[in-house]
From TrEMBL:
GO function term, MF aspect, one: aldehyde-lyase activity
Catalytic activity: D-sedoheptulose 7-phosphate + D-glyceraldehyde 3-phosphate = D-erythrose 4-phosphate + beta-D-fructose 6-phosphate
Keywords of this entry: Cytoplasm, Pentose shunt, Schiff base, Transferase
Catalytic residues as annotated in Swiss-Prot or TrEMBL: 87 (schiff-base intermediate with substrate)
GO biological process: carbohydrate metabolic process; ketone catabolic process; pentose-phosphate shunt
Transmembrane segments: none
Protein name from the UniProt record: Probable transaldolase
Family designation: Belongs to the transaldolase family. Type 3B subfamily.
Pathway note: Carbohydrate degradation; pentose phosphate pathway; D-glyceraldehyde 3-phosphate and beta-D-fructose 6-phosphate from D-ribose 5-phosphate and D-xylulose 5-phosphate (non-oxidative stage): step 2/3
Pfam families referenced in this protein's UniProt entry, alphabetically: TAL_FSA
GO cellular component: cytoplasm
UniProt source species: Sediminitomix flava
Gene, per the UniProt record: tal
SUPFAM superfamilies referenced in this protein's UniProt entry, alphabetically: Aldolase
Cell compartments where the protein resides: Cytoplasm
Length: 224
């Protein structure tokens, strides 16, 4: 499974990259706003700064909602760096724009996917990734994991080539459930990366190893 980080915070992206497990980045307008990034020039510069940290696959979200404007904005975003993946919403003009960019060999990520039908449509349009939002479905008492399973079955049935990018991941179990289903990508906040590290038996086991090591070495030093 590829690990993307879901943030526009440069320090968090660097931290995940330094961990040596990062395959890409997803951002969205809310995450950019959280970092106080406003104005097209600053937005472009911020995407470039993200591209300079990671090896590839930086999702930059198109704000426009009409086909013509989406194409113009997408062309500008794609010109920032070859690492850019255009992120487009699951709306009619978004699907048309995905087809346009797909025909041009520009990678796309169709966002705000909440049903298997939406995922199938985006895949048919040539999306590189579809982003089903697990946490937001769970928030309204619908199963995000069940949606991933449905999309995986459909994509496998037809060998569609579009990758499932599990988004709106809130905790490690979300990520692991998606991994068990064979979803190709997850995008998570840094917190989830760090939570994956944790197990109380690891902590107590390491403490015991280090205590035993220190004890025997202190005895040897005393005898010398
Ligand atoms: C996906 O690319 C989105 O940026 C993101 O995962 C949304 O997550 P949220 O529901 O935690 O805002």
């Amino acid at each position: 499974m590829k690990f993307f980080i879901d943030t526009a915070n440069l320090e968090e992206i660097q931290a995940a990259y330094d961990l040596g497990v990062l395959d890409g980045v997803t951002t969205n307008p809310s995450l950019m706003a959280k970092e106080g990034i406003a104005g097209e020039e600053n937005v472009m510069a911020h995407y470039k700064a993200i591209c300079d940290i990671v090896d590839d696959k930086v999702s930059a979200e198109i704000i426009s909602t009409t086909y013509e404007k989406m194409i113009e904005e997408g062309e500008r975003l794609a010109a920032i760096d070859p690492k850019i993946v255009l992120k487009l919403p699951m709306i009619k003009d978004g699907v048309k724009a995905i087809r346009y960019f797909s025909n041009k060999g520009i990678r796309t990520n169709c966002t705000l996917i909440f049903s298997a039908g939406q995922a199938l449509l985006a895949a048919k349009a040539g999306a590189t990734y579809v982003s089903p939002f697990l946490g937001r479905l769970d928030d309204i008492s619908m199963s995000g994991v069940d949606l991933i399973a449905d999309i995986k079955t459909i994509f496998d049935n037809y060998d569609l080539g579009t990758e499932i990018l599990c988004a709106s991941i809130r905790h490690p179990m979300h990520l692991l459930d998606c991994a068990k289903l064979g979803a190709e990508v997850s995008t998570s906040p840094l917190k989830v990366f760090l939570q994956l590290l944790n197990h109380p038996l690891t902590d107590s086991g390491l403490e015991k190893f280090l205590t035993d090591h220190a004890k025997v070495n202190a005895e040897v030093a005393q005898e010398a």
